[in-house]
Amino acid sequence: MRNHFEHPTTLYLASRSPRRVELLKQIGLACITHPADIDESQANGETPQAYVLRLAREKAQACLSMLSAAQAKHAILAADTTVELDGKVLGKPENDNDARTMLAGLAGSVHQVHTAVALAYMNKIEVVLSTTTVEMMAVSQAQIAHYIASGEHRDKAGSYGIQGMAGAWIKRIDGSYTGVMGLPIYETAELLRKHHIIQI
């Protein structure tokens, strides 16, 4: 008989993102959301890639530290997404004006979206990175104002979600669509397959 903890079908997700929950369901995984609140400040001289890798690892570690010994036998998944424009990190907007500035900068640009995924399991934490290049069309101030009025920009890195209305602005991507959403399915599944958590 298989040990339930060696082949878990349920894992802890160190996030409150409904998009990440849905993406895990897509590959047959139920999850228990257990958000980990950490300091998300970028360190001096830290590259966008190093920044998201560190945050994903720290979120997994923070979630692990909050669980009981029995709970911690389950896999814990954490992720962090950031948008990079000309070497600068664009995180979640502080307010509508911040979102307006970010979107005006992204309009007509080619930028990168980095999502790091961390898996804490069997006393180890492993982290992988997905980077996608995104080209956004030129967007008018009126279009940006309409988008901000929808509220869709809130709590999203770079102030937009590719799976929502802003998807109409995206001319091209080179990389992972689900990575831009916040959880790259291929890289996540590879990590879970490596540790025999999923079989697909």
Keywords:
200 residues; disordered N terminus
3D structure, described in words:
The relative contact order is 0.18. Strands 1, 2, 3, 4, 5, 6 and 7 form a 7-stranded mixed beta sheet that branches. The chain starts with 9 loop residues before the first strand and ends in a 6-residue tail after the last helix. The chain is globular. It is 32% helix and 26% strand. It has 6 helices and 7 strands. By secondary structure, it is of the alpha/beta class. Helix 3 crosses helix 4 (141-150). The chain has one domain (10-194): Alpha-Beta Complex (Maf protein).
Q: What is the helix content?
A: 25-40%
Radius of gyration: 17 Å
Q: Identify the CATH class.
A: Alpha Beta
Q: How can the largest sheet be summarized?
A: 7 strands, mixed
C-alpha termini separation: 20 Å
Structural class by SSE content: alpha/beta
One letter per element, helices H and strands E, the order comes to EHEHEEHEEHEHH
Domain count, please report it: 1
Give the overall pLDDT as a whole number: 93
Q: How many strands in all?
A: 7
How much of the sequence lies in strands comes to 25-35%
